User: Fold these one by one.
Assistant:
Number 1:
Amino acid sequence: MELRDRVAVVTGGAKGIGFALARAFLDEGARHVVVADLDQAEVDAAAASLGDRCSGVAVDVSERSAVADLVAGVEAAHGPIDLFVSNAGIGTGAGVGATDEAWDRIWKVNVLAHVYAAEAVLPSMLARGEGYLLSTASAAGLLSQIGDLPYSVTKHAAVAVAEWLAITYGSQGITVSCLCPQGVRTDLLANAMGISSVETVVSQGLLEPSDVASAVVASIGAEEFLILPHPEVAEYYRRRATDPDRWLAGMARLQARILGTLDGAPDA
């Protein structure tokens, strides 16, 4: 898809990857970009900084009716949505002891929000015979997330939702992509583990949100399903599929390194 003259919506768009995506789409000539996020003040600030071809909407993507209202409002104000980016996501930092409330919230934000978006935007796209759905999962959705069981589970599910949508609607003019970055310098990562600790352990370092946005723009142009801003993730994914026991052992060693670094022990 060419982004010029297109209307795009980006949830989780007030900062981090979402904000970088909105900026990149505008740089590519999008006619209008709507940034949607939970906090009204952050939405207003983001939209103002991005200029007059951008507007903001405060929305809780965990609510089905709120996502439907978002889509209806954008279509009424700006016309059909060409690209819907379901980017909002949260973590918990919890393991098997995660509360029912934490599971319910992360399931709705990290999984059902993608379903709600597709439900709301697909009728118009299917009627036109074209449209683009892009969901942000994570490398954790292909691999795993050390220290966060609900995040690992829901990001795997987010990838599955994207795959199902591609299989089901690809022949009807709908293009689907799934973004699976590894370490990106965002508030989500900083709050989860502390950026300095992650940089110490992950030899490839962290990407900036703008780097991810550049990879996304290129992949949208090529209409690729799996968007991997960290190319090494493809190799990790291959290893996981071909030799799961070896991969699990490697992840256990990585976990030990991360925990050792966080505890102040030297990185082995």
Number 2:
Amino acid sequence: MKTILIPTDFSQNALHALQYAQQLFKCERACFFVLHAYGEEVYGEFRTVAKEDIAHLKKEKEQETKKKLDELVNAVIGEPPNPLHNFETIASFDNLIDGINDFVDEMNIDVVVMGTKGETSDHKTTFGSFTVEIFKYVKCPVLAIPEDFEYRQPKAILFPTDYLLPYKRRELKLLGDLARKFKSRIHCLYITDFDELSPRQEDNRLFLEGALTKSYLHFETTPIKNKAEVILEHIDKIEAVMLVMMNSRHSFFEDMLYRSTVDLLGLKIKIPFLVMQNINR
């Protein structure tokens, strides 16, 4: 059974992420955990609350959160119809990142699915600060869904990689499951000016092939230039319906997170973005 965590702030893009997840796993047995973290709503960023009022405010926010979560779940159950889909709600008195991470560890979550803002929003990037923090710190795969993306089966998946990471079979399993289920073609894109792989890179590439044996893999190398532009060009070139990257210390993905490249991707990417975590859990 797949375990899927959907963080929600009760916005339209969070609802859209839940609906996308239901479609993506519509033919599988799955449990959807819908979580809202309300800790910041009690304490606030600058709010001063007397100690005697905290307990009352906490109880009030908890009841309000549970009511909204129940209403949200009741509105989406059965779309699409699958009696093997279960829904549970979590009202977490915590901040968003810690609340998600604790629940991921507790329930051994397979993937976190979250919404991102549309390109027409007033923000400079669809990848807001919370989204980037979840990408970086949550200890399981994270799938970000653009608000205006209409569900399509991920028949073509773009996977930029430098083959420097010793991949973890567990984190690749989700990618392999999706590719097998939808008979997807995974395009592994290496952005480099070198003609040959090092022995370490070759070993990691072979491991990738071994871990994704039931997937259609295509390997491509392209010269170095602006990484975000290369990725966006290849999304159009192969008509990709999902972008996949690996997050690890000193990885290509982490390198992007500390530069403005991620802002360009965040603003222009119009397809779901799956970030796999190359960390122990």
